[in-house]
Amino acid sequence: MRHATAVSLHGIAFATSSSTIKTALFQSAHHHHHHHHQVITNPHPRLTTRRGNATVVVMGSSTDPSTSSSSSLTTNDDDHRHHMNSGSSSGGSRILPPHILSRIEKFASARGGGDALFGYVERCHVNRSSSSSSSSRSSHDGDRDDHGDAPSSSSSSTVAAEEEEEDASHRHCFGDVLDAGTGSHSLRWMASVLHRDGLMESIRATGGDAPSSDYAAAVVPRVSMRSYTAITADENMRRRVYDEARELDISDRGEIIMGNWTDETLLRGRYYDTILVDYLIGAIDGFSPYFQDMALSRLGEHLAPGGRMYVIGLQPVPDNVTGDANVFCKITRVRDACILLAGHRCYREYPLDWIERHIRMAGLDVIETKTYPIRYDHATMVRQINVGRSKLKFFPSRGIAREMGAVLDGLERESLEVTSEREGGRITLGFDYVVVAEKPRANKEEGTTVGGGGGEGEGWMKR
């Protein structure tokens, strides 16, 4: 699982409003994927526009927008929404090439080694839509009883089965998705959703363990999404993820908007069926401090009535614990000290109860919550130690850097001793969490509808 073994570099999800975007990259003990910068694309040539302090970049050609001709088309921010392609170049079921399959197959793993947090997000979505469908079917069944028996021919049954399968695919659609602080990991998850049919077909075709492949195909949700919008602030990360979006063959399904959530004009008038907040709150302090208490309310403005927000985060690592796991607490403290001595800002994680409290303050309902204990191995801890080492060159004096380097070396030895004595070579400390929030539907008398006139699940984006 993501939280079990890996740690990775994060980009900052919030940028200044100035023309020069400050690049600030941090690493954090719980983030097992690149985060908070991302590329999103469209099937049309490059479109750029300015709206307030946000720069909208829509990509779909094979050319990186940063290297495109200066004569690229400039258009109104609202106009280019009409170009969003509801289809996909990867639509339909097909065997995925190895370079795509290797990056996204973990999201379709039904057994160990998969991504537990995003797996939970998918199950919550499927359970919700299935429950709604059951209620709808019960109502329709009652109506049918009033009008006589339904046709019972085999052809009618076949048609009904096909309609049921199509309906299931529709019910399990995330709709229009906003990735509020996007990075490589969330991009890959979205790719796994956009390629879900091909992904499952590829697992069947290439799985060496046939029973496991059949099992995965039977239990992994057949989810989908219509489009995605991702927010990023760092140009270097934008380029990295832009390249990955092309390599994952999802460059025709969304857009990237470079901007700052403190900018009130960002995404003004746009609404989404699903909002993903993937380790975003903890990253804010590294770039845009003191905005955390407003972030969920700000994002909630763009959630359609009846839409869902999935908040993924890390319970803060305590200052001290009893037992061997305390070595990671010490590593975290020293790592953060190195970041501060280098003149950089640390991440600041927020506890589960803080998140739930601010979700409710934003006018959303907390539907359910799940926690996942984190297990750290030696390699995971060394990666955090290396974050501290990477900051030594920025210290104000070589003497301080030398002494701190010795402290980091000692922590590496201690972490090896501790993990080598534990079964499985891991210690357990803290947890990741997923909070499922939902925006209440407006009263009918207020005239507000979900789906932009297309009904539930059809998207809710103002043009």
From TrEMBL:
Starting at the broadest rank, the lineage of the source organism is: Eukaryota, Sar, Stramenopiles, Ochrophyta, Bacillariophyta
Q: InterPro entries attached here?
A: SAM-dependent_MTases_sf
Q: List compositional bias (Gly residues) regions by residue number.
A: 449-463
Q: Where is the composition biased (Basic and acidic residues)?
A: 138-149
Q: Where is the composition biased (Low complexity)?
A: 61-75, 150-160
Q: Which CDD domains match?
A: AdoMet_MTases (cd02440)
The Basic residues compositionally biased stretches are 29-38
Where are the residues of the annotated region Disordered?
28-96, 128-170, 444-463
What is the recorded name of this protein?
S-adenosyl-L-methionine-dependent methyltransferase
